[in-house]
UniProtKB/TrEMBL annotation:
Residues 1-24 are annotated as: Disordered. Keywords: Membrane, Transmembrane, Transmembrane helix. InterPro entries: YdbS-like_PH. This is PH domain-containing protein. The keyword Transmembrane helix applies. The keyword Transmembrane applies. Residues 105-182 form the YdbS-like PH domain. Residues 1-21 have a biased composition (Low complexity).
């Protein structure tokens, strides 16, 4: 399986790991098991490492808020029961921060002749193939942190709700180029051109 270090256009090929707008991870992370899900052909495009930074900031901020609330409740208000939910949330959020970079390296998409394939996950792998002709809506969204770091997420909506796919952490220009390309291909597939 190959991957694309940079996905500035939908039809880009592997080149270098940097461009004018940014870079992507060097290779896609995969499970080591012989029984993993594999798509052998095609070029895998990956998300920007800026996605990890944004997620670390947002999750880290929430972790600090949980710690502060737990300390206020237990030390100032003498509510010792707050150690239990505070401790559980702290462990979960700390674990999330630890595994986040590896999770981000496992996210990728592949443009094939008839569909877009999205993959994510190491322990729980998910592969979703979205046929171009079934795409009804392609939406770009980004929050304040995303805008600050120049990334966005691309959401595909089809008639079947289960096939809704969100590709997070795309460079803004890549998301716009991919959206325009997919709208064009989806329209041509629906009209039978």
């Amino acid at each position: 399986m190959t991957n694309s270090p940079e996905a500035t256009t939908p039809d880009s090929s592997p080149a270098s790991t940097t461009t004018e707008t940014g870079r992507t991870f060097e290779r896609i992370a995969e499970p080591r098991s012989e029984n993993r899900l594999v798509l052998e052909s095609g070029v895998w495009h990956q998300i920007s490492p800026k996605y990890v930074t944004v997620q670390l900031i947002s999750t880290g901020s929430f972790l600090l808020l949980v710690i502060a609330a737990t300390l206020v409740l237990t030390l100032l208000m003498h509510q010792l029961w707050a150690w239990i939910p505070g401790g559980i949330l702290t462990v979960i959020l700390a674990w999330t921060l630890v595994i986040l970079p590896r999770q981000a390296r496992a996210i990728g998409y592949q443009l094939r002749d008839d569909d877009l394939v999205f993959r994510r996950g190491i322990l729980w792998q998910r592969f979703v193939a979205v046929p171009y002709g079934r795409m009804q809506l392609i939406d770009i969204t980004h929050g304040p942190l995303d805008r600050g770091f120049g990334i966005a997420q691309l959401k595909f909506v089809t008639a079947a709700a289960a096939t809704g796919v969100v590709i997070p952490g795309l460079e803004q220009s890549t998301a716009e180029t991919l959206r325009d390309h997919l709208v064009e291909v989806a329209e041509s597939r629906r009209t039978g051109l």
